[in-house]
């Protein structure tokens, strides 16, 4: 009899973490690996935020805090949500966790009963379905295809909802596609949700500040205030403020839901790192001017990658509205063979062969629920991106 719980058989390890780990192993072994698999900005955490963390250490703010966040941080989050999103919350409606992933996980664990369904648009962040499964729920996948710019249509959302639906998970700009829903597109989805009052909305806004060109970010409770009482608005400081390692995420929602999430957290991790909490206050309240500077660099990198990948016969790479990912289709390459004799049967075979033969690490599309595609993170240097895309071009050109 295995020591492991049966529930573990329903989930798999994170494919993005697995690919990043494999690339790190090869690099440590001396291979010239270019990693395009990690969803992490290559910028340092801004100096004012680092100093706030250092000050927290020097002034002894290194002890346990309230389970789901210190009052000062909760107040800063309330002010941010009002300032940026026009949403009014009280500190009692805020949960702070160890990264954005924990707040999502806590919410699902606090609400899902056996038989409950969760509608998840694909392509999706790899953790959504597995967190639902761990909570005992059933993921219902609705495919948002390349033809629709990787955006779910109102008709698809309507068709996916059943009497068993508990949540709709929404992510814009998206990981892995970078697709962003404008106000009208999101309003069309919220109109559907208004007709189904038993469905709650989990909005993952982690890439809110990574929005480019004419695209304007918006979030469900902002677009449709009638959904406020059944929406959990989730965010964090990881991506916009280059604080991935600080592990600090937050969510805002109804008091009863936040209380359930607090109970889960009190019996798992307890409070987030105290130092990270004080640094996050500075991130939210301090200067925001570097966000635009970072976005200028991301736009340049995005355009570089999109241009070079679209030069490849058999590859179609749309231009995303936000985040720092592209999600090209390789439908035109399926069935071809590498010089080493590997048949590109699917996108996983493509990603594996590319890593083995050209030392470029990407993540295959099946991990995100839509194939045949792959995800590139362009949150790295221009030089690395140029070299990686050149290697991808060479790899594809050699296929027969």
UniProtKB/TrEMBL annotation:
PROSITE patterns assigned to the protein according to its UniProt record, in alphabetical order: AA_TRANSFER_CLASS_1 (PS00105)
Protein's UniProt keywords contain Cell membrane: no
One Pfam family, short name: Aminotran_1_2
One Gene Ontology molecular-function label: transaminase activity
E.C. number(s) listed in UniProt: 2.6.1.-
This protein's UniProt keywords: Aminotransferase, Pyridoxal phosphate, Transferase
InterPro entries: Aminotransferase_I/II_large (IPR004839), AspAT/PAT-like (IPR050596), NHTrfase_class1_PyrdxlP-BS (IPR004838), PyrdxlP-dep_Trfase (IPR015424), PyrdxlP-dep_Trfase_major (IPR015421), PyrdxlP-dep_Trfase_small (IPR015422)
Similarity comment: Belongs to the class-I pyridoxal-phosphate-dependent aminotransferase family.
Record protein name field: Aminotransferase
Species whose genome carries this gene: Cognatishimia coralii
UniProt lineage: Bacteria, Pseudomonadati, Pseudomonadota, Alphaproteobacteria, Rhodobacterales
């Amino acid at each position: 009899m295995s020591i492991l719980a049966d529930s573990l058989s329903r989930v798999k390890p994170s494919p993005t973490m697995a690919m990043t780990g494999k690339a790190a192993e090869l690099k440590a072994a001396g291979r010239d690996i270019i990693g395009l698999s990690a969803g992490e900005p290559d910028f340092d955490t801004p100096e004012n935020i680092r100093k706030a963390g250092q000050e927290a250490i020097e002034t002894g703010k290194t002890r346990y805090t309230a389970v789901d966040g210190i009052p000062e941080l909760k107040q800063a989050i309330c002010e941010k949500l009002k300032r940026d999103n026009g949403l009014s919350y009280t500190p009692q409606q805020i949960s702070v966790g160890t990264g954005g992933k924990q707040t999502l996980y806590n919410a699902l664990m606090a609400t899902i009963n056996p038989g409950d369904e969760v509608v998840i648009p694909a392509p999706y962040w790899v953790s959504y379905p597995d967190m639902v499964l761990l909570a005992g729920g059933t993921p219902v996948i609705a495919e948002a295809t390349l033809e629709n710019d990787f955006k779910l249509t109102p008709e698809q959302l309507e068709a996916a909802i059943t009497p068993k639906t508990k949540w709709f998970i929404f992510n814009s700009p998206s990981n892995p596609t970078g697709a962003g829903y404008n106000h009208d597109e999101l309003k069309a989805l919220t109109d559907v949700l208004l007709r189904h009052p038993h469905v709650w909305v989990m909005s993952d806004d982690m890439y809110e500040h990574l929005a480019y060109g004419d695209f304007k970010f918006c979030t469900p409770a902002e677009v449709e205030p009638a959904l406020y009482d059944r929406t959990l608005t989730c965010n964090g400081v990881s991506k916009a403020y280059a604080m991935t390692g600080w592990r600090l995420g937050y969510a805002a929602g109804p008091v009863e839901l936040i209380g359930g999430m607090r109970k889960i957290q009190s019996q798992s991790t307890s409070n987030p790192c105290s130092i990270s909490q004080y640094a996050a206050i500075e991130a939210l309240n301090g200067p925001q001017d570097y966000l635009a500077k970072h976005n200028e660099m991301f736009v340049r990198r995005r355009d570089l990658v999109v241009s070079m990948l679209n030069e490849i016969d058999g590859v179609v790479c749309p231009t995303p509205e936000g985040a720092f990912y592209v999600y090209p289709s390789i439908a035109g390459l399926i069935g071809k063979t590498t010089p080493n004799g590997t048949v590109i049967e699917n996108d996983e075979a493509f990603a594996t062969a590319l890593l083995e033969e050209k030392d470029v690490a990407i993540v295959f599309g099946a991990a995100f629920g839509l194939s045949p595609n792959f995800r590139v993170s362009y949150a790295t240097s221009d030089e690395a991106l140029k070299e990686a895309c050149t290697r991808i071009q060479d790899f594809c050109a050699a296929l027969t």
